[in-house]
Task: inverse folding
């Protein structure tokens, strides 16, 4: 579905910018192949190595250094410096930071379980460590990735047994932080106000959201037909990226959107099933990691669908495994590699070795 809809949504954009008409289709296919290769490499690494404390720590440090590099030397695209250039390809370290933070948090919650459940210092230590990488991401700036990472960490420490009073403190702090981040950046304020009334300024702040809603309205139940979208004809900017779901709604209708979201729900359910099965085997690191990944996939799918439908403010987050984007596709397929390794090896781990996992 990703390849089909990226091809449909990007042809007119590519031709308008004097590019090969199927450029974004071939790019997306290349990203998938690269992701499968890296996913297979990760799949071949033993779980004991992946979930070792040193591994999660060094991966996190590596992500922090790459993010700092983007802040000072990264490619400026659409007003943000989130990408590192590798020839004709760009890589977004914040995507890798998501899996790095989930991996690190899963290990931390097992090593410091008593501190997290019975003392405030475990919670404060984790927040302190996370703040370094989150602050670096904010300097890019990439507010959406920060919100998703905070949501994943918060959900993971909640299921790990964080006391209710600390949960309330965390929720309050995050809420205040989100409000502060919004009111201190004019473009974020504009996004919130345009979300509240998506048709009051269609020539400026409401342009993308208004066009997205129109696309869904044109599609109705069964869509106008594959390749027949009007909004992709220079009306909805770069429709093959974050707003690909809107073009899907226009061409395939409600039925197409429901089918796509059903696949997302199925994926999330399978990931959560992995988390539950490993928890029953007392493989806590594997369970926390799978749970964090499930929250990550749900959060990104929910935000992407919500913003295109006009029920959430617009934010630059991709629909997992669907929207156009190399970094997201490659990292997500690496996550799948780890999950497949867990499915393969988890039942074979003896109860005496479960504490290492």
Result:
């Amino acid at each position: 579905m990703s390849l089909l809809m990226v091809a449909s949504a990007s042809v007119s954009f590519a031709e308008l910018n004097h590019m090969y008409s199927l450029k974004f289709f071939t790019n997306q296919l290349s990203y998938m192949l690269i992701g499968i290769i890296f996913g297979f490499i990760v799949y071949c690494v033993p779980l004991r190595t992946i979930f070792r404390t040193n591994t999660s720590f060094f991966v996190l440090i590596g992500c922090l250094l790459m993010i700092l590099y983007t802040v000072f030397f990264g490619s400026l695209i659409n007003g943000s410096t989130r990408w590192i250039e590798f020839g004709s390809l760009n890589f977004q370290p914040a995507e890798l930071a998501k899996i790095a933070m989930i991996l690190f948090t899963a290990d931390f919650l097992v090593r410091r379980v008593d501190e997290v459940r019975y003392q405030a210092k475990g919670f404060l230590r984790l927040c302190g460590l996370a703040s370094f990488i989150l602050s670096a991401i904010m300097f890019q700036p990439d507010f959406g990735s920060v919100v998703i990472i905070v949501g994943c960490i918060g959900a993971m420490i909640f299921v790990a047994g964080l006391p209710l009073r600390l949960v309330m403190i965390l929720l309050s702090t995050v809420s205040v932080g989100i409000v502060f981040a919004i009111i201190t950046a004019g473009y974020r304020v504009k996004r919130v106000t345009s979300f509240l009334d998506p048709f009051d300024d269609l020539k400026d702040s409401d342009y993308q959201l208004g066009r997205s809603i129109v696309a869904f309205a044109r599609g109705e139940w069964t869509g106008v037909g594959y390749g027949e979208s009007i909004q992709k004809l220079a009306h909805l900017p770069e429709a093959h990226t974050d707003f690909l779901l809107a073009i899907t709604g226009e061409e395939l209708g409600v039925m197409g959107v429901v089918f796509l979201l059903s696949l997302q729900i199925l994926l999330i359910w399978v990931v959560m099933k992995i988390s539950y099965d490993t928890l029953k085997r007392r493989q806590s690191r594997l369970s926390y990691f799978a749970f964090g990944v499930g929250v990550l996939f749900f959060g990104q799918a929910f935000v992407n669908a919500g913003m295109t439908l006009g029920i959430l403010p617009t934010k630059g987050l991709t629909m997992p495994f669907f929207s156009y984007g190399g970094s997201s596709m490659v990292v997500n397929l690496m996550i799948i590699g780890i999950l497949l390794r867990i499915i393969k090896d988890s039942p074979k781990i003896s109860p005496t070795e479960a504490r290492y996992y």
Q: What stands out?
A: The two ends are 35 Å apart (CA to CA). The chain has 14 helices and three strands.
